[in-house]
Design a protein that fits this description.
163 residues; mainly alpha; membrane; single chain; flat; transmembrane
């Protein structure tokens, strides 16, 4: 009976992985096609689809105990995708999402902090490239805040949080 339950849980987890990947790809295609053809009236639908995609990915990974490292990398890339394809509000949204995901996944799950800090640094560099003067101040603030926050709340044995 225990073997059957383990197989059943494993099949649920693999189904959840494929579902989250499928939803992320589908919503990325939806964003790239319909956002360029529509006016700003569809911004509510766009933000709703972004929110649903990221919420589903986080929910499926954390509560079903899936691979956190690969999920964080995929979500960071998805946030970087938002830098390219959305407006100024999309930039700010993608920055907030990548910062939130990096902090949450590294502190509360204590896994792959080095890789998460690398992707977070890449997101901050994208701020310098893609945004105006406001982006410079925001990226400086974020790097200082994250350096202080991560150095206080992370365990002492973890290395590689250079910003």
């Amino acid at each position: 009976m225990s073997l059957f339950c383990d197989d059943h849980v494993h099949s649920k987890k693999s189904f959840a992985i494929y579902l989250s990947i499928y939803l992320s790809i589908y919503l990325s295609i939806y964003l790239s096609i319909y956002h360029t053809k529509r006016a700003l009236k569809t911004s509510v639908v766009i933000y709703l689809s972004i929110y649903l995609s990221i919420y589903l990915s986080i929910y499926l990974s954390i509560y079903l105990s899936l691979s956190v490292c690969s999920l964080s990398i995929c979500l960071s890339q998805y946030a970087n995708y938002l830098f390219v394809n959305l407006s100024h509000y999309g930039y700010c949204l993608s920055v907030c999402l990548s910062v939130y995901l990096s902090i949450y996944l590294s502190i509360y799950l204590s896994k792959s902090v080095h890789y998460l800090s690398v992707y977070l640094s890449m997101s901050i560099i994208n701020l310098f490239i893609n945004l105006s003067l406001y982006g410079y101040y925001l990226s400086i603030y974020l790097s200082i805040y994250l350096s202080i926050y991560l150095s206080i709340y992370l365990p002492d044995g973890i290395v590689g949080i250079d910003m």
